[in-house]
Amino acid sequence: MFSLNQSVLVRGAAGEPIPSPYRGLQKLEVEFRRGDFSVVCAGGGTGKSLMALFLATWSNVPTLYVSADSTAATQLSRATAMITGDSAREVKKALVADDGSFAAYEAALAKRWWLRFNYQARPTPKDIELHLECYREVFGCYPHLVVIDNITNVDGGGSSNAEEYTFGLEGLCDYFNEMARETGAHVMAMHHVVGEYSSGIKPIPLDGVKGKIGRVPSVVLTIHAEVDGMQGRTLHISPVKNREGFTDPSGETYASFEVNTSNLQITDLDEEVF
């Protein structure tokens, strides 16, 4: 039991924002704070994993990325392109060529020593806890950012019907929220949306989140995209829940970001947020 003044001493790093490359979200008062839990939702292939990986590579903080949804080859190719600016396709060719050409990237990748991955397809909460403790043992601190990609890939014990499925998701949200509190990390989980919004081409409201899990997270973001026909892509990120700032549950207010589909750089568009 703590007084308000004592709470200053026990808060630790809670509330400290993770450095973010997404200035448009900052204009909408969206910050990824340590000790908090957020959920990023979009249809399959829209760009939620790219958004999370770009944050992980450029936030420059200790990071554990639980990549259940993507293989090591995919994440390594994407991250190398993001870091070096080279084409992700050419990076992938060098990676699979097995002729030593990928060694040219090793020095650049070594500078991101603080970024570590778990590639289990169905990790359990105990698996994630083990990796957190290993991270602390090696580096002397817990990660400041933990990415769970995707939350439905985490083996929470299984379910036999829709009601238990929703309860299982809420239980995992409670678990990751507690993880954020206990470790002082910002825990960000990727998640899916209901079928009506799975195409990813229109704004997604809070009630479009699959399983209706908006109760626990401090921040819920939804992403829809535009494709211009010339391989260009624009991501629109909507704060449909935000305890610390602006929120629009309709999803109609968003910050926009241009994705270079060659080297996977994500940059703010100059226009004002909508």
Automatic annotation (TrEMBL):
Q: Which Pfam families match?
A: AAA_25
InterPro entries with a match to the protein in the record: P-loop_NTPase (IPR027417)
- The name on file for this protein is SF4 helicase domain-containing protein
Q: Which organism is it from?
A: Streptomyces hundungensis
